[in-house]
Amino acid sequence: MKRPWHAFYPESIPRELAIPSCSIYHFLERSAQDFPDQTAIIDGEVELTYSELKHKVDYFAAALYRRGFKKGDRFGIMLFNCKEYVIAYFSVLRLGGIVVQLNPMYQQHELNFMLSDSEPTWVICENSQIEKIERTNYGSKLTIITSDNISNGFANLNNWIEEENDILPMVQVNSKEDIAALIYTGGTTGIPKGVMITHYNISATLYHTYVTDQGALERPGERYLGVFPMFHGAGMQVMVGAIYYAGAYIPVRHFRIDDALTIIRKYRPTYLSAPPTAFVSFINHPEFQDDDLSTLKICRSGGAPIPIEVMQSFEEKSGVRISEAFGLTESNSVSVRTFMKGVRKTGSVGIPVPNTDLKIVDLETGLQEMPAGAPGEILLKGPQIMKGYWNNPEETSHALRNGWLYTGDIGTMDEDGFLYVVGRKKEMIIAGGYNIYPNEIDEVLYQHPGVSEACVFGIPDAYRGETVKVAIVVKENHIVTEEEIIEWCKERLAKYKVPKQIEFREKLPKSAVGKILRRALVEEYIEKLKENDVTSKS
């Protein structure tokens, strides 16, 4: 197939890469061997060197092995970003086990399916989460391990480490076949699906990132700010990337702008990967200073398209270039990105990384390749693409066809191979026969001087089928009216794209990684319609 994007690869970036076939644990082992005294983790007041981290990982792995853990066993990690997460993660991979990534914000009904589906033998969590896990349908089958210093009668990670047992088995890992992590996705639009990410998938993303960073980072000594949660694919890759580079990983439990600025000013990170909402928080914070991010070498945005206005404002204030990336859990995060050096096109998320193919196909059959500039579904192929969905061959066969991942995202590709993400297939609004892509309207709204955040979504309409509604968060010390927003859009958009309903809010619903949940706004609107219908009938 044609790969026009290769013409835009700088000379330092190969078209194809040799991806190593090894366990992800190998990267920790290598960094500990090469730089034993280098700082590996900075978690609050606690710092661990690579030698100390590897010892804790091996001791915890040995404690698990002593208690019957064997290759292929599933181990649930239900923690916010912290040093214990890193220890548990690499311990499980050392034994050839599978990490089941569990969001600690999930409630009992959400955990019921994931635990019953993945069937872990063990789960680690904070004391405050134990009751919730025990009350799930699968809770009685689990060995629960606490990450807190006080065990409350449960098994405890720190106590097991202190046993200093060093008996570990020889484990052979088939990098391309053996699963390293199960990451559940799709819960907001249906039954969650367990994405099977292999050791090879993770290695591929590491190497893709390494070469496309074009020598911006050195080994060792970089400082990675862990904004994305590790239970998310992007957060896992940031953490593993820090270990690969023998850098210091600085876990952020919750992203709150005031706390984040304090951490940044104290530790001066060189690497930041964050969702667009984090960059909105930076540029709108009254105390954000030009010098705050002056130490950054890599600044990456992912999880959702970043509005052009936000990107430009952040880069102007910080002096740091944002490298936007496109990917999803099923593609193990980054598959397309803007490189650190070379051509960057406004509005584009970049070009495919090495070993990766991209094409745009028609929305109805998914078979016909679309011409340059025409919208269609984004398809990806490469070594970072998931193995499939856990225990779900039907969904796997729908998502993976002839080696291609059908992403469910709509985009266009220009003649040079640069990708422009338009939106999700399920989020596309069809009003009066017109296809309307919410991201396009979002972009226009973010250009308004009084808009802090905006999210456009489709709602039912008796005449048009659907119509356009927008939820807006206004910047502090600004006053914005409905009439002003409508007039702003009329001047910049075709008439059928102009929002018909406008709602001002104090905040918008967001995912655990800070992505604005468009679907949640739709569901909330429909629920209110039902309530109003019941009220009117009564």
Describe the structure.
- With 538 residues, this protein is of the alpha/beta class.
- It has a domain at 428-537: GMP Synthetase, Chain A, domain 3.
- The chain is 30% helix and 25% strand.
- The chain has 15 helices and 27 strands.
- The chain has an 8-stranded mixed sheet, sandwiched between helices. A 7-stranded mixed sheet has the order 11-10-12-13-14-15-16, with helices on both faces.
- Helix 1 crosses helix 2 and helix 10 (276-284) packs across helix 11.
- The longest helix is centred in the last third of the chain and has 20 residues, at 518-537.
- It is globular, with a radius of gyration of 23 Å.
- The N and C termini lie far apart (62 Å).
- 48% of the residues are buried.
**How many alpha or pi helices?**
15
Let me know the largest β-sheet: 8 strands, mixed
Q: How many angstroms does the end-to-end distance come to?
A: 62 Å
What best-fitting shape do the alpha-carbon axes yield? globular
The CATH topology assignment of the domain at 428-537 is GMP Synthetase, Chain A, domain 3
Strands, count: 27
What proportion of the residues form beta strands (DSSP E)?
15-25%
* CATH class membership of the domain at 428-537: Alpha Beta
Pfam family, one: AMP-binding
InterPro entries: AMP-bd_C, AMP-bd_C_sf, AMP-binding_CS, AMP-dep_synth/lig_dom, ANL_N_sf, ATP-dep_AMP-bd_enzyme
Protein name: Long-chain fatty acid--CoA ligase
Domain AMP-dependent synthetase/ligase: 28-390
